[in-house]
Amino acid sequence: MVRKISWAAGIIVGLALLAPAVPAQAPAAPGNAPRIDVLNCDVEAKLLPDVHELEAVAAITFEPLEPADYAVFDLNDNLFVTKVVDGDGVEMEFDRNRAAPETLTVHFPRRLEPGTTATIRIEYDGGFDNDRYSRIFSRDLGSAYIGMEGTVLMYAAKWIPLNRFLADRATGTLSVTVPLGMTVIGPGRRLPVVTRGDMETFAWKSETPILPGSMVAGHYFPRSVRAGEFEIECFARKNNLEAIEGMAHEAGKILGWYAEAFGPAGTAFRLVEVDEAQARQHGMYGTFFVTRRELSQGPGALRQLARRIAGQWWQEAVEVRGSEDLWLADGMAYLSAARYLGSAGGDAAFKEEIDQLAVLALKFEKQAAVRSGLDLGYRSDRYESVVAGKGAWVLHMLQGILGEEKFDRLVRDYYRTGSGAEGGGRAKFRALAEEIHGADLGWFFSQWIDSVGVPSLEADYVVLRTVEGFRISGSLRQERDLFRMPVEVAVVTGDRETVKTVELSGTSTPFDIDVFARPDRLVLDPGDKLLRDSNERNTAVQVSLGDDLKRAQNFVEAIRAYEAALKLSPQRSLAHFRLAEVFYEQFNLQSAANSFRDALNGDLDPKWIEVWCYIHLGKIYDILGQRQRAMAEYTKALNTNDDTDGAQMEAARWLTTPFTRERTVMDAPAPQ
Predict the structure, then answer these.
(1) Which helix (H) or strand (E) holds 561?
(2) Which among 196, 213, 381, 560 is most buried, taking Cβ atoms within 10 Å?
(3) What CATH number does domain 30-218 carry, 2.60.40.1730, 3.40.250.10, 3.60.15.10, 3.90.580.10?
(4) Which of 35-49, 127-141, 165-179 is predicted with the least confidence, judged by mean pLDDT?
(5) Cα–Cα distance between 456 and 125 in angstroms, integer?
(6) Could you give the CA distance from residue 598 to residue 571 in angstroms, rounded to a whole number?
(7) Banded pLDDT at 28 (limits 50, 70, 90)
């Protein structure tokens, strides 16, 4: 029998059925939610790479730090939670994204008190690929992908439930089941592999609290390398085994230098080949990455390898307290790499690297203070500029204030205490720095970490004759009224340099320097110890921005960046050359030829620009059927005797055989 109900009653019943259950306490924003400390996180995941999906269960043991009726976890919105149960297997209420995007709120059946522990199990599934899944709020597309050709799931992708992103560390086991033939590399100690039918399970156990959950999987071939005192297990494609073995020996040298400079971090590590998309991922606990392109570059990839290996000290071993401390991890890693490159290549190599870091820092410096860099998107171009680039320069400037000996002591003490139970962070680092320096440094950290902007220095001075020689009397000027910083000023007389430190304060600070002989010139900041604006650096910043845009094939904006560089420095050959490359790729041959000629008429810095300009001009003439003019350019290239990146062989090849190029086919790029 069918019962009839009134239409009003039906609407009421229908609305009641559609309305979601409202918990007793609505979740607050993650920053205001009850605080918990995750102690252990065991994850069991099954990868389905043919459909770009996973199925996972996370068992999380935690301690409430205050009375808690619920807890809020970060979890990527590509993942769908099916069930949450407590330690007794009783289902618990949960909801998604009520506290904020990418959150999971779990409601406890009874209030949890501090000093107790609880365990919950979260079951979920979902996937990552470039087509069906696009809601990755982390803005780091290189951190999550599942596929037969290779899988990467990094901590930053929030593919496991996380508490206090980048701050809360936990022990745990990561167990991943994959189709037979794939290998999984995770953090910590590898457990025995279990094979069941056409599937294999790889498990990795971390007995040290770490940022959990990072892993890569693919069709890897293993090779073990003894590099000095370190045992490095390599994982690469078959055709890259020889290259990764050579890279492992370089890694051993870097590891040895860091261990001596900062303190030991173990003797067993892994080196894993990854795609170019993971170029900004340093690796994970016990593991560092190298991209396929870097393997083909050999020694040319040392900068990135040195930065990633430094992450084992500053991002894995030393715990930061929150996002405001990330500059200490990334900045210290980048500066450590610069110091290693300087130790291996001399003062010129260090200066080149510190100049590169200055350009990186200034690219997006005005977009956020260093302490707020996470707001720019973790591992994004802007994050790398503000947090890693400027962070490294903040530490470099601190070294200039403390002196090398005291700074080295600070770094060792910070690593020793920060890698212990107490962890690291800005407060500890500042306290150690002030203890070693013997004076307050609050002003330094406040103006460089909490604020944006860098000074632009100028000097006004006159040379006066004195009884004992000459006096340079003048003032340092800059536009920031509250700025203070010790600045070195050098007076150069012949081959002699007299350096005085001026305590710059406010917009104008007077100085006097006495010398015996008539001075030739005055040099500001001769030791390059101050991050500041200058015409030369701003030109380099625009060229670097243009390079980034060119790689992204955003040619219109790349042209604008290079033209901005040329407005600052019309004779900058590198800017003309890069602009010519863009025109060449667009098949705008006349504009390309004009810009290559402008590059030849510029400062010719770096020197390789000359030979490659001639080669490109020769190719343009060949494309246009002007063989005699092309041969003349190739001959000029050979006459330079410059063989940067195989330039001599390239010129000789096209001198013998005319160059041809289809409109849609790009030939090999010139040096970077």
Answers:
(1) helix 555-568
(2) 213
(3) 2.60.40.1730
(4) 127-141
(5) 53
(6) 8
(7) low
The answer to whether 221-317 and 535-656 have equal CATH topology is no
**If one looks up domain 323-449 in CATH, what number appears?**
1.10.390.10
Q: Which residues pair with 83 in a beta bridge?
A: 123
Inter-helix orientation angle 627-639/608-623, to 10°: 170
pLDDT tens digits along 288-309: 999 999 998 877 789 999 999 9
Q: Would you call the peptide bond into 192 cis, given omega within 30 degrees of 0 as the criterion?
A: no
Of the options 2.60.120.430, 1.10.390.10, 3.40.50.620, 3.40.1710.10, the CATH number for the domain spanning 221-317? 1.10.390.10
Picking from 178, 186, 183, 176, the residue whose alpha carbon sits closest to that of residue 210 is 186
Helix (H) or strand (E) holding 53: strand 53-64
| Residue in this structure with the two tokens 């592999």, named with its chain if needed | 193
Instruction: Tell me if 291 sits within 8 A of 273, measured CB to CB.
Output: yes
Cα torsion through 645, 646, 648, 653, rounded to 10: -130
Token output for 22 = 């409202």
Tell me the one-letter amino acid at 346: G
CA 152-163-53 angle, 5° bins: 30
pLDDT band at 29 (very low <50, low <70, confident <90, very high): low
